[in-house]
Amino acid sequence: MATNMFLSTLVRLKAELGLDSILNSSRDTKLLCLQRFVRLFAYGASTLILALYLSSLGISDARIGLFMTLTLLGDVVISFGLTLFADGLGRRRMLVVGAALMSASGAIFALNGNYWVLVAASIFGVISPSGNEIGPFKAIEESTLAQLTPSSIRSDIFAWYTLLGTAGSACGIIVSGWIVEELKSVSGWPETRAYRMIFGIYTFLGILKLILSLMLSDACEPMPEKEERHAGVELDTMEVEGLLSDDESDTGKASNPKPDTTPAIRKKSIWPSISPSSRSILIKLCLLFAVDCFASGLVPQSWITYFFTRKFALPEGQLGTLFFVSNIISSISNLVASSISKRIGLIKTMVFTHLPSAFFLALIPLPNNVILAMVFLFLRSSMQSMDQAPRQAFLAAAVLPSERTAVMGVVNVVKTLSQSGGPVATGGLAGAGKFWVAFLIAGMLKMSYDLAMLKMFLGYKSREEEDSVKGPTQLEESRTNGQA
C-alpha cells in the first residue's frame, strides 16, 4: 500500500513538474533547450567578469556603463534584422549566423583590450551584460518551440526551456569565478589575462552552439500556410479572446477557395505580416515590457556582481558561488511557476511571483552586512524568473502562429532597447557614489509594471477555454457567423 502511494506521488510529481512533457518532446525541442543551456552558460561565465575585466583595463565606471548601453543598442539592430527575416530566410540559418557572431565577439574579447574595439565587437557580436538573453536566439527559439509543442503542454516546455537557461547561467557563473580565482592565486596570472581565458571559453561555446544549430531538422522551419491552417485547432486555441477581428476571419475563409496560390505567395515572401488585432495587443505588451526592462537595465547582473565586489570586497570564487546559488534557486522556481499557472492562470502567476521579487530587489543595497544583502538577493532570486515561462506562453497565445517569430522579435527588440538606457544611468550613479539608488528605482518600476499588467490583462480568456464550453456545432456556427 505504501509503495503504491509512493509511486502514485511520483507520477503526480512528474506531471506537475512537466517531466513527461520534456522527456516525450521531439528531438528538435530537446536540441533547442540544450542550445539555450550552452548559450546561457557562456553568458553567465562572461557576465561575472565583464565589468571587472573592463575595470582591470583602466576603464571608468561611467564608461563601463556606456559600454553596456552601446552593447544593448547594437543588439537591437542585429536582433531586429535577424528575427525580422528569420521565417523568410530560414530559422536554422539565422541561428547559425547568430552563433558565428557570438564566437567572433568572444575571440576579439580574448585577444584585444582596446575600448572601442571591444565596443564594436559587443555591438556587432553577441556579449551579454546581464547574463540573460541577448541576440536573436530567444525569439526564434520560442517561436519554433511554440510550433513544435501542443498547446496543452506548452507551459511545461517553456518552463523547462527557462529552467535550463537559468541553470546554464548558474553553472557558467561558478565555473568562471573559480577558474579566475585559481588562475590568479595558484598560477599567478594577472587578473586581465585570467579574465581573457573566460572569453576564450566563450568562443568555444559559441562554436558548440553553432554545431547544435546545424543539427536541427526541417520541422523547425515555418509551416506552409495550408499546414498552418490544418493545425489551427492545435495552434490557435490559445489565442486571447477578442484578438482576432472579423476582417481577419474573412481573410482566413477567403483563402480556402485558393489553397494553391496564397501559400505560394506567403512562402516566397521574406517579409513578415502582423495582423491589426495582433498589433493592438503587441503595442500594449511592448509598453509594459519597456518599463520592466528599463528597470532590469539599471541592475543587470554585471552591475550587481560589481556592486558586491565594491561594497563587500568578495573575491571571484566567492562571487561565483553566490550567484551560482541564486541562479539555481531561480531555476528550481521555474518549475513551480508552471504548476501554479495551471491553477490560477498565466497573468496571475506572472504578477504574484514577480511583485515580491521587485520588492526584494530594492532592498539589496540597503544593509551594510553582506549576509543580509545575500538573503535579499536569494529571496529575489526565488521568484525573479517565475514569470518568464507564463509570459512566453501568454505571448505565444496572443498572436497567430505565422506571426510569432516576428512578434517575439519585435518584443525582444523593444525590451533590449528599453534595457539599454539603464546601464549608463547606473554607471553615472555608481561614479557619484549613489549605486544604491539604481536598485531602489528598479524595484519601484518593476512593481509598477506588475500592477499595470494585472489591471490591463486580468480576465482575458484563451480561445481554447472559450471553445471548451461550446459543442462542435455551436463552435462551427459561431465561426461562420464571425466570418459573415
Question: Could you give a short description of this structure?
Answer:
This protein has 484 residues and is mostly helical.
Describe this protein's structure.
There is one protein chain. The protein contains 24 helices and no strands. The chain is mostly helical.
Which secondary structure elements does this structure contain, and how are they paired or packed?
Blueprint: H1 2-17, H2 19-23, H3 27-56, H4 61-84, H5 86-89, H6 91-111, H7 115-124, H8 137-148, H9 154-185, H10 191-214, H11 225-230, H12 232-235, H13 246-254, H14 261-268, H15 276-298, H16 301-312, H17 316-344, H18 346-363, H19 370-384, H20 388-398, H21 404-431, H22 435-457, H23 463-468, H24 472-483
Helix pairs in contact: 3-8, 3-9, 3-10, 3-16, 4-7, 4-21, 6-7, 6-8, 6-10, 8-21, 9-10, 9-17, 9-20, 15-21, 15-22, 17-18, 17-19, 18-19, 18-20, 18-22, 21-22
- Which structural class fits the helix and strand makeup? mainly alpha
Mean pLDDT: 79
Strand content: under 5%
| Total helical elements | 24
Helix content: over 70%
Order of helices and strands: HHHHHHHHHHHHHHHHHHHHHHHH
Count of DSSP strands = 0
Oligomer classification: single chain
Major beta-sheet overview? none
Distance between the termini: 60 Å
Task: List the main descriptive attributes of the protein structure presented here.
484 residues; mainly alpha; 24 helices; globular; disordered C terminus
